[in-house]
Amino acid sequence: MRQRLQQSEEVLRILSCDLQLTNKTLGHGSYGEVHIAYWQGCPVAIKVLYEALAAYQRNIDLLMQEVTMAWKIHHPNISAVCGVTLELESTKKTAWIVMELLQGSMAGVIEESQQQAVHSLTLREKVDMAHDSLCGLTHLHTLVSQCATENGRDLCTDRLMNLYL
Description:
single chain; alpha+beta; 5-stranded antiparallel sheet; 6 helices
């Protein structure tokens, strides 16, 4: 999926009818929720802007700014953006970011290792995870000067790809 995304300079528009939503919610915040869905037969994460917020153009502009910047980021430790779904003409406003679904997160590994007394993370695993996190952050800083400021708020252990599962 990553190679296909890198071929276009323009953010891919995805119709909501092309997505098969599931009932599985991965998380939520002040601007929306993240759900699991299927697009072209592949599982994806859908970042859904709350409908009440989607009614305001400023929020749509901020969402599109995030998508446009994230679209340009290609790094193995940062979740890739597949496209955006914007359907604002109807009475039900739809504003979604379609993203690569990570099979695990650093937060999940840390939580699991803390709960299991048998297997805690080794020093090597901790160093490798910190290294990969810093590689992702460094990539953001060097790609676009403002990228770390605007996307850094979204970079937390839940969104860092875990290569150690």
